[in-house]
Design a protein that fits this description.
By secondary structure, the protein is α+β, with helices and mostly antiparallel strands. It has a single domain (about 1-165), classed as LURP1-related (Porin). Helix content is about 15%, strand content about 50%. It has one helix and twelve strands; from the N terminus they run ββββββββββββα. The chain has one helix spanning about 140-165; strands at about 1-5, 15-20, 25-30, 40-45, 50-55, 65-70, 70-80, 85-90, 95-100, 105-110, 110-120, 125-130. Strand 3 and strand 4 (about 40-45) form a beta hairpin. The protein starts with a strand and ends with a helix.
Length: about 170
């Protein structure tokens, strides 16, 4: 199963659509603008909430909780590293590695592929593709990818702000 997310549309305050491999709307994602910590809602096309992502406030490193049906099923933590970002996914027992800023990474469990994420050039614009091996992992894999993208974008924005402040 493949899902497509447009590049550079992520904002915790905006609403955007995730499409399937046939170009049909699959999910709607909406962030909360005024809240303590970042919060992101993922809705199915029927309007029901498929997942909820919430940032843990007052954490030294970025830490997010993923909820499905009101139950926490994963925690995503950006680990402390000097050179390349690394993430830990607690809950489902998944590992993630690759180039996060280039949207080219994979999620695995004991070597078994869960999802591959890579930049894709499509007719409706630059986007990245999530190739999810098992449909049972779809919503959790999507939540992990959305979280990693938001942490990556926040770090890039912070780096750009500190660079411009130093000029």
């Amino acid at each position: 199963m493949k899902l497509y997310i447009r590049e550079k549309v992520f904002s915790w305050k905006d609403r955007f659509t995730i499409k399937d491999e046939f170009g049909q709307d699959r999910y709607f994602v909406e962030g909360e603008l005024f809240s303590w910590g970042k919060k992101l809602h993922v809705y199915g096309t029927d309007g029901s909430e498929a997942a909820f992502i919430r940032q843990k406030v007052w954490s030294f490193l970025p830490k997010y909780h993923v909820f499905v049906n009101g139950r926490q099923i994963a925690q995503i933590v950006k680990e402390f590293t000097f050179l390349f970002p690394r993430y830990r996914i607690d809950g489902p027992g998944w590992e993630v590695d690759g180039s996060f800023t280039a949207h080219d990474y994979r999620i695995t469990q004991s070597g078994r592929p869960i999802a591959n994420i890579h930049k894709k050039w499509m007719t409706w614009g630059d986007c990245y593709e999530l190739d999810i091996a098992n449909s049972n992992d779809e919503i959790v894999a999507l939540a992990v990818v959305l979280t990693i993208d938001c942490v990556t974008e926040a770090a890039a924005a912070a780096g750009a702000a500190s660079a411009s402040a130093g000029s």
